[in-house]
Known about the structure:
Number of domains: 3
CATH superfamily of the largest domain: EAL domain
Distance between the termini: 102 Å
CATH class of the largest domain: Alpha Beta
CATH architecture of the largest domain: Alpha-Beta Barrel
Largest sheet: 10 strands, mixed
Structural class: alpha/beta
Number of helices: 22
Mean pLDDT: 87
Strand content: 15-25%
Amino acid sequence: MKKVLRLLVVEDSEDDVILMQRVLSKAGYDADLLRVDNGEDLDYALKTRDWDMVITDHNIPGFSSEASLKHVKAYDEHIPVVIVSGSIGEDIAVAAMKAGAQDYIMKNNLVRLVPAIERELREVETRRARKRAEDTIRHMAYHDSLTGLINRAEFERRLKRVLFGLKDDVHHHALFYIDLDQFKIINDTCGHVAGDELLKQLTVILHKPIRESDTLARLGGDEFGILLENCPIEHAKIIADNIIKEVKDFHFAWKNQTFQIGASIGLVMLTDSDQGMTEVLSAADMACYAAKDAGRNRYHIYSEDDTSLIRRHGEMKWVARIHEALKLDSFVLYQQMMPAVNSQSGLATNFEFLIRLKDNNEIIAPGAFIPAAERYNLMPAIDRWVISNAFESIVQIAQTNLALKDATYFLNLSGTSLSDEAFFDFLREQFSEYPLSAEQICFEVTETAAITNLSSTVEFIKQLKELGCKFALDDFGAGLSSFSYLKSLPVDYLKIDGGFVRDILEDPMDAAIVAAVNNIGHVAGLHTVAEFVENTEIIQALDKIGVDYAQGYALAKPAPVEDLIIDAKELQN
């Protein structure tokens, strides 16, 4: 069976073409051959059919091989061109090769024609495969593999170009930062395959309200960016509203389930050439989260004097510092003594471990960074750091300071960790790794965190108490229905909210609340701890009420945990 060869021949001699066809037929080719002899016919043939190769004569009246090469390469640089001529000088042949011809053959030596054709057919496929690979790599460098949208790197490049152009441009441009609402629910419920399909479908939805000149990009996860060039703020608002409506009206179906999602948009107007790319993206991100805070499924326009954004900007800085502290191990543990109010009670002195952030020579209190950690879901990581380092310190204390062999150590847990299914497994691993008694550990949770997810909190406490741990309810009394929860929560200590303890001497109502909490705690079989004890008069009042433990500056200020570890030299003495 003969091989089909689609051959376009630029030749003014029909006899020469017939001769070529005979040579090819003998070599087993069925040449689908078309002859042209001018530029117009050549262009038409190139546009209307696909060709494996072009063969051109060198000397056609009014149309040289050089002209043929230009026409062919302008249309498709990968189509091989071979010059077949009756007379061609070596200098002209070399010039033709430099111009893009693959070979030249004399008409009196057509025996070389078939090998040249076969060689070029092989090489053209190699060149095309290489070109496809290069195009694929180039596309992957600038586009998101899942959605086909441009990726973050290319979006940032275009954003930089627009910001740079503001120096000479009187037009205003807009930047959207879009975060999908409820996307995580679909990912967690149906899996990442469903999440990926949702993102691909949303790519089509997000294109509908924007203009052809606008740039839509996937910035990562379920976050998208849109760059709207030459777009005044009023028109940007209309587009933002339309995006929110399109996404809200979209229903995602997956395996007999239907989901509805939303979109929160941060909008930043690009009007100042001094704005930096990182700065405007950060502003758009903050505005997006402000939209989420305001109820989701809406947009928020960035403004430099927006107090909520100023606060969030400060939090974002803390987020970066927290990540760095976790990476570089820059947190440190402090401890605060919690002695018995009545020294004759026989109760052992306890300690609460407290986290601090060390920044060069400065020790930063948790009140500065914990709010940001809570908002941005970093508390589980901080809790893990505290527990791991606290367990290591408690082992060292037990080995060196026999005076504290009966002490209990209080460690704070966030509400997020209480609902983290993996957190209990982490605690089991820590107890396996460190040779300490679980009875010495008392985990401390705020009343608010405990009652937010009461059922999961109760289950978590029960699991840890089976290991031997104790539990304390912190800031007790601050809630609206504190006493009713004591029957449900199997805790060992009640820490009376310091807001009541601080004014116990001046405010009879506060004194009555402290006494009531202490009484209820004792009826429930719990030890009570008074917080914010700031002078000896308060200690005396607490002793009369019958509170078990006290904690505050009147007794001890927070100090490094290392203070409880006795140096080896001291042990020798």
